């Protein structure tokens, strides 16, 4: 056997790879939003903070704050490579070249700098991580911070396993991934994308998963939200915008009337910025039902909608009905689900929106390609173009894979959210009463402005 | 990333490792039997042939006879290394040093040579592989031939898979192996050995499996029948003798009376040879029931019994009853099952022989350590010392692991059996009517001598 002495010595002295290998290792929509912010809000400040919703996991006990600092400091030293900027300039995104303006790319090259951060640990064992500064300097932190915390927690759990246990951990995760691919493979008309960067097990695992999807699902695999993986593996970069934008615009509004109008004002600015491309609505920031009801007619011309906090069966049907009321053909539109998806729901939603279920079949009856090829169960007859944005349960499904039996690799519910814009508190209501974000008195005020129609889990007033 | 240029070039020009890496890569009992043959039958000739009982698999279509020749020719060039002979001389086997005589080891060093072979393909797509010559030159072929054919068939199937599919194949097999280890781990009093050399998936996989067992099962893992793995990994080498010996002695007998006596004559010779060690009966060659009934009293002094073709629950109970009739304490004896075992049967047999089942529990209720620790189900109260010799379903359980979905990695039922001794046909009846081996007229003759008592599947004469 030939031994690579240099590699052995390196492995012996190893430091693990940095978690963020490139500034492209972020969701593509963050780059689209950054250009939008750079263009329209270059002097606006914005702060973000990391929140661990899985409060039963004491993150600060698992992750050494010193190691997290190292990772965050390392991210701050990164610059966009020339080759990456050339790719952003020359590559085709959503069928169009030149999505990024030369002046923006020049700014990325010369002036982009991640803000500083504040990291402390709290008395209940959590990490408190905040970013403040210019919005253009804080917005990209979201994904770098989430993926760093998620992977450091993975690394801490990996350290407790023996070599055999590590091998079994990944064997189980790969076997599970293959079962998922096997169920999706060959399903006619299916569209799936990777949306799993922020809560991934690790960078290398996400890369493995994305390559496996690309190898097995053929045209059903639409791409990845991870810009770096899209760049490295010639895949489509997927994603358009997030709640951060309507939250900021609403926070900057001076009156309730302006606040209500902000959710549509954003859309106007966005379509100007992107010349009528990348038009995916994200209507749940302050409640989908009020959003659709109050929308100007031109909003129905947008290409599609992403549902993120409402039951996607309900959200899709609501969107279809609204499009019909507005005189648009839903079959020309795109409906994207992106909240906590896994195979069962992806197949069920695909059946629900892409075909006519026969003989009393229900979405739950669709378990694999065979069910979609069974003409007794289903006729392809698209009601709307459906696409699944598959996140955490694609890139971090290690449930019951740990040979030591504990939940050390179960995914955490980590988020990194906008707190303030120019000193004003940011609020998200969402389609789920319990998922609202912001100071309680501000949430109350926003509820007064936007109402509770169509919000799940809202208290019933008798 | 540091690249090992030499390794890359080597991998590019690769030839796969030889399947038989060392003459020690054989079952330990073959070496014990070789010494026995060398001592008592140095001038006896014996022929062996390989039989594929899985006739639906056309081996000659899967395996290139040229590649098989290369492997067999390579095995013929192998010699015992000095270090291996020193280990055979100096190591302790079954608690005793010096099991192998200096003169035998000298003969292994200077004069041992595998016989020539004849390889042809048959019209029904099978390989016909025969070995003839001195018994001392043919006997070791059994394991080298079986493991070579088994691994070449594996390699042929591996060639059809993509890199991802290969990764998934092994991920699934490892995940399954772990489930098996997990069920056995912590079961009080359990004894399990690897008996899987002959029909293994590959050498490297057997090595992986044996190391995993050794790492996870602690004292419950008793060792491996593979001498090379025992040597390389400081494990116990397990095994004593096989059907080949009583078959040969019976074939050499001149009268039916001598033939009946041969099965006990062998035991006398064996205990002389090994000075009263390694005394494990293998009573099923011509039927266990007649063997036990006709055995001289001193046979009951042997340490234990291995059951290979009778339902092991029945065989163990029969042995216990027989020992009691002969006035021996079964709790001092060892009962080894070695026929087609997998986890369910290992746990069931362990419960049956090592404890008292309570409250209507059955062997099938014992699924993992928890069941053995449940005092409502079981009280440890050994009826006999039970040990499991785990073969094909330990080292070659790739059923449903192939990502391409076909049975290309399912284990084959390959055997390599003694045909003739000094020109006389060899016969095995076994405890199963349908598992007899030999020319039909000879089988008939043997049945006349040994009877059919206790033989499963025998035709009922009305």
From TrEMBL, chains A, B:
Asked if the record carries the keyword Secreted, the reply is: no
Entry PTM:
Transiently phosphorylated on a His residue during the reaction cycle. Phosphorylation strongly increases the affinity for substrates and increases the rate of nicotinate D-ribonucleotide production. Dephosphorylation regenerates the low-affinity form of the enzyme, leading to product release.
Q: Which Gene Ontology cellular-component terms appear in the entry?
A: cytosol
One Gene Ontology term from the biological process aspect of the record: NAD+ biosynthetic process via the salvage pathway
Modified residue annotations for Phosphohistidine: 243
Query: Keywords, A to Z?
Result: Glycosyltransferase, Ligase, Phosphoprotein, Pyridine nucleotide biosynthesis, Transferase
Q: In which pathway does it act?
A: Cofactor biosynthesis; NAD(+) biosynthesis; nicotinate D-ribonucleotide from nicotinate: step 1/1
Q: Which GO terms describe its molecular function?
A: glycosyltransferase activity; nicotinate phosphoribosyltransferase activity
Asked if the Swiss-Prot or TrEMBL record annotates the protein with the keyword Glycosyltransferase, the reply is yes
What Enzyme Commission number(s) apply to this enzyme?
A: 6.3.4.21
The chain positions of domain Nicotinate phosphoribosyltransferase N-terminal read 24-150
Start and end residues of each Nicotinate/nicotinamide phosphoribosyltransferase domain:
191-450
Query: Which InterPro entries does this entry report, sorted A to Z?
Result: N/Namide_PRibTrfase, NAPRTase_N, Nic_PRibTrfase, Nic_PRibTrfase-Fam, Nicotinate_pribotase-like_C
SUPFAM superfamilies (alphabetical): Nicotinate/Quinolinate PRTase C-terminal domain-like, Nicotinate/Quinolinate PRTase N-terminal domain-like
Q: Which Pfam families match?
A: NAPRTase, NAPRTase_N
Catalytic reaction(s) noted: 5-phospho-alpha-D-ribose 1-diphosphate + nicotinate + ATP + H2O = nicotinate beta-D-ribonucleotide + ADP + phosphate + diphosphate
Q: Which family does it belong to?
A: Belongs to the NAPRTase family.
Q: Which NCBIfam families match?
A: PRK05321.1
What is this protein for, i.e. what is its function?
Catalyzes the synthesis of beta-nicotinate D-ribonucleotide from nicotinate and 5-phospho-D-ribose 1-phosphate at the expense of ATP.
Protein name per its UniProtKB record: Nicotinate phosphoribosyltransferase
Q: Which gene encodes it?
A: pncB
